[in-house]
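Input sequence (319 aa), recorded before submission:
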Amino acid sequence: MISHAHHYHDHQPHSQDDARHLLLPHQDNDRRISQRLLLIVLVLTFTYMLAEAIGGYFANSLALLSDAGHMFTDVAALALSLLAVRFASHPATPRKTYGFYRLEILAALINGVMLIVLSLLICFEAYQRIRHPEEVKGWTLILISSGGLIVNLISAYLLSRGHKETINVRGAFLHVLGDLLGSVAAVAAGVLIIWRGWRWADPVFSVIISVLIIYSSWRLVADAVNILLEGTPSHINIAAVEQAMRTVAGVRAVHDLHIWTITSGRHAVTVHVVVNDASESYRILRELRELLAERFALTHSTIQIEDPTFATVVNFKRK
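Predicted structure, token format:
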């Protein structure tokens, strides 16, 4: 029996020796796939970044140079993402009990900030060129940006297979998507320059793409910051979780409920539960864990069971 001076605590999973228990088998496999995809895309992006930078210089195209600039940040972002994914697979240590999963979130945050800063710089340069249009070699612009479009389509396809699984890969995907849109804009600008002689099309398209990238990047940054601040995941209604827990037979009250994200797709919950009969604690714990896992995908749970007398004492002291 649980006396009024004690409470029952249960943690699931029980092993704290290795943070990898936070990952389900298919999620661990997703990370290995993500590493391979990131490496392939990194090589493709770096190779064509050089081609676009050289071509943009000779064509005197801001759209092409801006696309090469985005590709440069892609190389850095993809390398950072790849490093973060590999570090995240390392086992936990006594000083890093959750392992290195948060490196993925930090990488996503850095990637988002890099995209926003670069896009703002491109908008500033585009403003200068709109005021004072410069000569742009349309055919060179079209030829090189078409090659970049093909490379970005391949990269976007590869990363689209895993960008919904981790926020880190999502950040890399946004970088590549920005390049893809940049390549489309560069081709369109080249066509308008040759067809209509509109030199302003080059900087205007650069601004349009930059604004779209800033919008997507801001959402990425917001999601990363929310995770680092241990906010409740946006897709989880904490009130609904509490209400569902109260429906378990024998549960009198639920308090101190906290839900946060450890890394992409891995959420944790801690909660205190007051029960009517302490002798039913094990049954209640089992049902609560099943409820949290099946209905809300909260498989990493720490549940503290309290009997009514203990809860009353605690509440009185808090007052």
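Checked by second reader. The chain has two domains: 19-228, 233-318.
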